[in-house]
Amino acid sequence: MINSIDSLWKLSAKEVLSLLEKKDVSPSEVLDSSINRIHHVNPHINAVVTLCDKRARKHIKDNCSFKNTILKKMPVLIKDMTEVQGVKTTYGSMLYKNYVPDKSDLLVSNIEQNGGVILGKTNTPEFAAGSNTYNDVFGVTKNPWNLKLSAGGSSGGSGAALASGMSWFSSGSDLGGSLRNPASWNGVVGLRPTPGLIAHGPSKMPFNSLSLNGPMARNIDDLSIFLDSMVSYNLSDPLSIKGIKKQNYSRAIETPINTSYKVGITDSFGIFPCCNEIQNMIRDTSKLINLLGHNIENTFPSMDESEEAFHIFRAFIFYYTYGYLLDHHKNVKKDIIWNIEKGKSLNIADFVRAENIRTRLYENISQFFKDFDFLICPSSSVVPFSFETNWVKKINNKEFDNYVSWLMICGCLSLINCPSVALPTSIAKNGAPIGVQIIAPPYEEAKLLNFAKSIENEINISKIIPIDPRNI
């Protein structure tokens, strides 16, 4: 077993936790391994934008009670959209480049109570808007598999940091694929959970079920451990679930699957454009799942009109949250202003139509899950593109006039309140990973992660990372 400081970062979180449990290594040594790795590779990737190592060392020293917790004083990175007490939180915006909150988000507090030690913040596009991680505060985050490519977004900093060994755990957030897309593109995994499973806030929109926080890690085992540390009930979050029995997800996925599942699969829902490499990846994934003994069919619930509903809800969220920027937006990127202005122009008929569409979409997915255990589709309709490309303007013959529409393979699923786990399944021609998202009925995270692990076990990508940045 490798356990020197210089090599600890190569191990999985599960392996490091075992070493900590046996006292073969100390929390300080684990922290030093992450810090050394960040100093070594982050200059090439730009995934970690703020370090709080002094705060981390103080937490390790001051909290002896961490010994019997889930994370056992392991370091955790937090996306720069989530507030950490005493640590700069910029939201990727020049307007907040010097903002230091005096209180942590509930998500952060819960991770710390479960033994996590916050080491730093990961890069995000401004206000998490877009699926290429760049901003005027810190610059662009590059894909460690190919430094000419995007790490995705908006949790691209988290995905790239995990893939290159800077940490074992990192938080992500997801409105229209912001966690799922960068997980697959960086060869790691991420979970968009059932709304209410992970408490967060305070929030300006506490009843918003579209934008969620979730765990990201290098593999499903580690993801399940991190999820255990994040799940909580908190009265301050009105969507937080008190009645549901808390699962031990890391233990649940240890049970071998001894049944044949019925799985639906699609590359496009019949309405979203999809590039050839992604189509081929979906066909290969379908063959793999069939070889694992499951019944897989090229069928799916209708997602018709989901794009219209998603645009309406997203625009409302941006106007409600950032409407104040319309009066002074010189330092805010144009895509965000477009989204805010779109929200400002909405009328009551738009909301009625969006709610009706969303209701119909949930009826479609609930009817689908009466006959099927899981639904699989791509985590992105395209392969990772150049980090110099802000957003995709065209897929096949379909052109887009905004930065959101090309993401609808993820955005449509944000409307239905179902958990979705993203994982890589193959490598694109440009050398970067691509993958799928697997969707399950609400609150079936344990079953979902167990199934995802069975697929991951047949793929070698999770064994390759953490990797050294390519093309440097």
Outline the structure in words.
Helix content is 35%, strand content 15%. Strands 8-10-9-16-17-13-11-12 form an eight-stranded mixed sheet, with helices on both faces. The protein has a three-stranded mixed sheet with strand order 1-3-2, with helices on both faces. A two-stranded antiparallel ribbon has the order 4-5. The chain has helices at residues 5-8, 13-21, 27-45, 53-62, 106-113, 156-163, 180-185, 220-230, 249-252, 276-291, 306-322, 334-344, 348-368, 408-411, 445-456, 461-464, and strands at 48-51, 75-79, 117-122, 134-135, 139-140, 142-143, 146-150, 169-174, 189-192, 212-217, 262-265, 295-297, 374-378, 394-395, 398-399, 420-427, 433-439. The protein is an alpha+beta fold and 472 residues long. The protein is globular. The protein contains 16 helices and 17 strands. Strand 11 (262-265), helix 10 (276-291) and strand 12 (295-297) form a beta-alpha-beta unit. The longest helix is centred in the last third of the chain and has 21 residues, at 348-368. The two termini are 29 Å apart.
